[in-house]
Structures
1.
Amino acid sequence: MADHYEVLGVARDASADEIKKAYRKLARELHPDVNPAEDAQERFKLVTHAYEVLSDEDQRRNYDMGGQGGFNGFPGGNFGFGDIFDTFFGGGGGRGPRSRAERGQDALLRVDLTLREVTFGVQKSIEIDTAVICKTCNGTTCQPGTSPKTCDICRGAGQVQREVRSLLGNIVTSQPCSVCKGFGQVIPDPCVDCRGQGRVRARRNLDLNIPAGVDDGLRLQLSGQGEAGYAGGPNGDIYIEVQVRTDEVFGRDGDDLTCTVEVPLHDAVLGRHTQIETFDGPVDINLEPGVQTGETITVKGKGVGHLRGTGRGDLLVTVQVMTPHKLDSKQKELFKKLAELRSADTVTLRKHKTGFFGKDKRR
């Protein structure tokens, strides 16, 4: 009788994992479903028997001490039948043919937008490189005028069953058909243009309707706009990630736009009606007499469009009073006269506000 270690090609001090790995490799090569050679079945039996003995601690110990470890009597213990059955026979049971069609992959695209585009929303058209349905076969994977044929080996079942002798008698095994790969059909004449995939690589235009109110980092899902699926399978999705460029003049606070207006000192003192240029064009604002730096003027409805719902946010205009630093002699004289008239005004420390319980709000 052949030495079990030599049959599996392992050393006598091989670990249980090494023995199991060697057995699985040989069993895959010698299994009757994949190896039609005349001696494959006998070698498969020897390999299986060697593994049954060496995978059981008691049987291996008995074998190493000179015991036969043979077929007779099935000396007690588990000889790994569950592993054999699950690994190579697929747990039995035919599951029927599987679909050749597969869903296409999703894609992530990044789109740069200006703050103006985010404010009103924008339509864009971008060119993408992706998989599209093959126009020649229309996703069928077959040459025009031909069609898939039922597999002669599995007769459309996608599975083949064979009877194999084992230590427990005859066992019916079930595996995906090696001819049709489990699909139950074969493609005698694959489409030449797509090489039997039902799809080809191409560049196409993607129309985007970006709504107002999107924010930096937001992702929009375009269902069914991704790659075409294999063999006519459904398209994947496209995810659009928004990136908003910084504007030179305007900022954003939620759905409100923000900006700062520099006001000459005399306009801050006397007040003034003026205009500022916005995304909506010129907008009137009213500077009240005595307006201070840091005060905010709210222009209703001139902010960012609401992403959900209707309407828009506001435009928040912050005042920055500009103190003149280059004066001619006449202007200096006027300021001196003003200082004399306002001689009661002094430089003082401003008291900070406290909360209801006297705590410093700045902390």
2.
Amino acid sequence: MKLDSRKPDVSVPLRLHPLNWSNPLDTSTTGHSTWVQLQECPTPYSHDEALLLCQHSETKWVVWVPDYGEMVLNKDQFYL
């Protein structure tokens, strides 16, 4: 088998943009990370705060929880 080492003819963006950053939780212009308080911890050993990564849909966010990982939460599952 021979590998194709040619560069693709398509350009790949350096950074993929989230679905919707035009909301009050937008961190792209401020440079600050937005941490939210969780109503319930995913596990007894995980933290009770989550870092907002990007908006998944109108009512859901992709978040990162220390000692747990990434997950998708509804807006009503965390406090701003």
3.
Amino acid sequence: MATLAQEKAGLPGSTVLDRIGNTPLVRLERLTAGMPGVQILGKAEWTNPGGSVKDRAASAIVLEALRREELCPGRRLLDATSGNTGIAYAMLGAALAFPVTLCMPSNVSPERKRILQAYGADIVWTDPAESSDGAIRKARELARDPQYFYADQYSNEANWRAHYHGTGVEILEQTHARVTHFVAGLGTSGTFMGVARRLKEANPAIQCISMQPDSPFHGLEGLKHMPTSIVPAIYDPALADRNLEVETEAAYAMARRLARTEGLLVGISAAAAVVAAQQIAEEESAQGREATIVTVLPDAADKYLSERFWEE
């Protein structure tokens, strides 16, 4: 694998950075059976090298920090995460030779814990009852120590810019600018913020719909119930044309349905996004309108296979 220095020198060799982005769109055909002119397309973000959409934001944050020399020899990258961004940081830390410390709720899936261990990241476990907010508070506490570069994905503008310059452009190109609706879940909100801004610039008529859990007590790992959470500094609710709430059980049911009828094993937040996308599809079909609905499938199911809902 090429080093960062070699990359800067323009020498040949593919790194994990080269493989981030340009993910395919997958058509979810059976969900729109009987809805002529309506299609749901999912951005298959598990094809990123770290296995999730968070590779995009993490790489943008890391490269900007390296450019500004905020992440330099002798400093550790620090951030709060519910899992996928942490995995992306850990992967990049291993590839680019910088240490990583992550604050994370202790109830994340066993698969995520093993992946982070494999990459060699240091983990500070936080109270699961406090969800991602507890991890954020712990990271802010640790960030007082100058050994850390606090990446702060919830406030870092590089987060949403990664999607403005990457994901949003890809969606326009892959749909030949025919996308009519965009649906994405809210965690850090970076994916929705960046893509919505880019799509609205291209065509203000594109409907951008945000999605979040319907309750503060939910099982949609990686997503935030904004009314009861620490709201990310990068989040602007005015960008959404609508906001939909999804029940945890509906997401679990959709994950099983996608596996058994579409042949797609997706993560819980991806399934929740599809629940919201299908609601939009049904509304558009009922009105006799054609629609190209694009949603983001943040990751695959490999990090959730120990969850009991698969057996229900």
4.
Amino acid sequence: MRVRTFHRGRLLLALTTALATVTVASPAGAAPAGTPAPSDPLAAAFDTAAARYDVPRDLLLALGYAESRLDMHVGTPSAAGGYGLMHLASNPRVRTLDEAATLTRLSPVALRTEPAANVLGAAAVLRSYADQGGVTAAARDDVNAWHAPVARYGGASDPSVARLYADTVYDLLRTGFTSVRGEAVPGRAVAPRRGDLEPAPVLGGIGTLSTDYGPAAWAPASTSNYTVASRPGSHPINRVVIHMTQGSYAGSISWFQNPAAKVSAHYTFRSSDGAVTQSVREKDIAHHAGNWTYNTQSIGIEHEGYVDNPAWFTDAMYRASAALTRTLTTRYGIPRDRAHIIGHVEVPGATHTDPGPNWNWTYYLQLVNGITGIGSGTVNTESANLNVRSGPGSSYPVVGSVADGATVSVYCQAVGSTVTGPYGTTSIWNRIGTNRYVSDAYVSTGHDGYIPNVPRC
């Protein structure tokens, strides 16, 4: 079955109308959880695309969230040549951008740069894959029928990586998530029908594990993307280079397996839980730094996410990555300092800026050096709830709340604005999650001030 084309004039008018809509925050008249504000142009774009191509709307949202946290990244491509919040790709193996242009009759420029067009293009491609894969009209409302089209959308040639890509989207549907626009997608029971991918080994699960680093899964990069060597005998390993993937976890692992990529890294970490996959043996030279001398003398570690979006920089990823770096520095005698644990941006001749200004070097180096404790405390507030803020200070936006009497984990502590509460006056703020802070004046931790062995943010 062919995906029907949409009259170009009507489509452009609809997209223009959606993009021109202005979102107005109205706390008093806010929509209930799970329901976007009707005036949100991005919500309208998902509504339009899902209805037009008969693709489950929450599946589209989960795919976009997995790829980009629903961020257009101002039209710049990912490392794998993917554009927009839906990562429409244009590289020698994956051509979803070109397919979207053919199916929607929209220009590649619009598909790359306009959110509504980008979402519509992804929906069109998914629908075409569903039709080609035999998903019937009666089955299209069942989100579990779309595993194969989602896996194909990711473009991985390795069955394990293809399954990982699609399973990531279904894991989001299972747990639920909140988009950057504030729309809550509640979790639901899912049982994806994986078809030919059901027997594929699960990366990080029952699949092949790394022989270099026990916690890592093994998904080898294409031999075109690294150089076989016998390090450290032939080259001293004296640095660790920190990168951001500028793309998703599964997508980046898949990209390293693409012979056209010409890039790779030894390890890649996932944002949500700190899972890690190795793509190049430590003895071999990954093509990660853009400088041959640095490539020959370093281990490259990628981290899922984008430099301009701090939502990807989770404590789980920091801690898991730091555990690997601690192991590497011990194994190769690398000093645990900023002269030897560096960012890609610090490599001579680098054209990349990763890991960027949102990477917390102070926190990371403390974890690498063994200050790895997680504290806990009990919230005590005179009201029913305590505001949670996006940074260590009262001027930062409120991003949630915790109930009086709740127990919270403290991953690190920062200095911020001074607050007076049940436990006195203090400028210490406790980070209880990614970009989530509460004043220590309202948290009983069993310590007066800083908690021993808990890092400073």
